[in-house]
Each structure stands twice: as C-alpha cells, then as structure tokens.
Write a structure and sequence with these properties.
Blueprint (H helix, E strand, L loop, with lengths): L2 H22 L2 H18 L7 E3 L11 H9 L3 E6 L8 E5 L5 E3 L5 E3 L4 E2 L3 E4 L3 E2 L5 E2 L5 H8 L5 E5 L20 E4 L2 E6 L2 E4 L5 H13 L4
Parallel strand pairs: 1-2, 1-7, 7-10, 10-11
Antiparallel strand pairs: 2-3, 3-6, 4-5, 8-9, 11-12, 12-13
Helix pairs in contact: 2-3
C-alpha cells in the first residue's frame, strides 16, 4: 500500500473520531465557544463588514457562524451560502439574507433560491480537524478543495473550529490548501512561514488580513 493509498483509510478514521469528539462536547459548552469565536472574528476582521463573505450553515455541532454574519451584514457586508452544482465541481455561492427563499440541499442544508451568484472576498470554512500548518480535514467530499483551487485570486481563507479539532497533522496531499487563519475559542492563529501562530491580540489579525487582501486585489 503506497502512501497515497494509506491516507484515505487513515483520514476516514480521523473524521469519525473527530466528529464523535465534537458531538460529545455538551451543547451549552459549544455555544459558549461559539460566542467567544464570534467575538474574536469581529475583532480580527472588521474589514469584512465591507466585503462579500461566503459562509456555511452549521452542521453536526460545528461553530455557528451566523451571529458573526449578522454583525458584518449590519456594517454592509454581503453574505452568501455554498451550493453544490455537481458532485465533481467547485461550489457556487448565492447571496443570502434573513428571509431569502431557500430549499433543502445536500445534508438537508438551506440553498438560497433566485438570489445572485456571488464571488466571495472571504470564506469561513469549517474543518473537522486542523493541523499546525493550517491544513484542514473536511468531510471528504472535496468541495472546498475544488472551490479554492478554482478561485483566483484566492479569497481570505478563515478556518473556524473548536480546539478539540486540533490534530498534529492531517497528512496533507497535493490538493490540500492551507487556511490563512484558524480561529478557535483559544484565539486567532495566523499562518506564517513556520505554520500557525497564535496572535497575542485578535485585533493584530486585522492588519495582517488587510495586507493579504490588498496583495490579492480583494479590497482597496
């Protein structure tokens, strides 16, 4: 069995264990962690209040990004939810706002109907697991991998997870793309030359993120 062949079964086992660990955390504890992460996101990325943000509907005990989205929308942000167009294709993002018409899609999650297709400046991405180099372990469908590979320039990539999702390595493969930031209840972690580094203050991420966005032409 070569290395690539070995990674698949190993990742499936990790996904199962990580998902079970997250669901085993008491719901009130997850809500407390989510409130902390929401505050950190708004402190670290105020520029997203004037941007388009791709986010996700929470699923299986994930961090709930909706409260951060509500805050950024009040500042003028445009929010968008992902849509599976085809099993082997990149995700499409459609504008979302409270009250927009939706139907149920993959995993019974809401899909906006009749709203505009959006090219997000930033993505909030939920990992089942993440490692010290900023790589994320998803659910195995490869949707975010294909989406990020197709996006040029790259959006600001913000992984949002609980500390219990941290792992030494996801055993990254050629198709894996590292996050720019990982935000957990412990703080904001920025990806540097030596991997993820916890920033002493969440607000320090603001200039870092702004500089990344300027280099990529995401905002002025």
């Amino acid at each position: 069995m070569n290395r690539a062949d070995a990674v698949g079964p190993w990742r499936r086992a990790q996904r199962s264990a990580l998902g079970a660990r997250r669901m085993a955390a008491p719901a009130d504890q997850r809500r407390g962690w989510s409130r902390t992460i929401t505050t950190l996101l708004q402190q670290a990325f105020p520029m997203l209040g004037q941007s388009s943000i791709g986010f996700y509907w929470p699923f299986r005990g994930e961090f709930d990004p909706r409260f951060a989205i509500f805050g950024w929308r009040r500042l003028g942000a445009q929010a968008a939810l992902p849509v599976v167009v085809r099993k082997d294709a990149a995700l499409e993002f459609r504008a979302w706002w409270p009250g927009v018409a939706t139907v149920r899609g993959v995993y019974d999650l809401p899909i906006p109907q009749g709203s505009a297709v959006v090219r997000p400046d930033a993505l909030l991405i939920p990992p089942l697991g993440f490692d010290a180099q900023g790589f994320r372990l998803g659910y195995g469908g490869g949707y975010f991998d294909r989406t990020l590979a197709a996006m040029q320039p790259q959006p600001l990539k913000i992984g949002v997870a609980f500390e219990l999702s941290r792992m030494p390595t996801i055993r990254p493969q050629a198709h894996d793309i590292a996050m720019d930031f990982i935000v957990t209840e412990a703080g904001v972690h920025a990806l540097g030359e030596n991997g993820l580094a916890l920033l002493p203050e969440a607000s320090q991420a603001s200039e870092w993120a702004r500089a990344l966005g300027l280099r990529r032409g995401l905002w002025r």
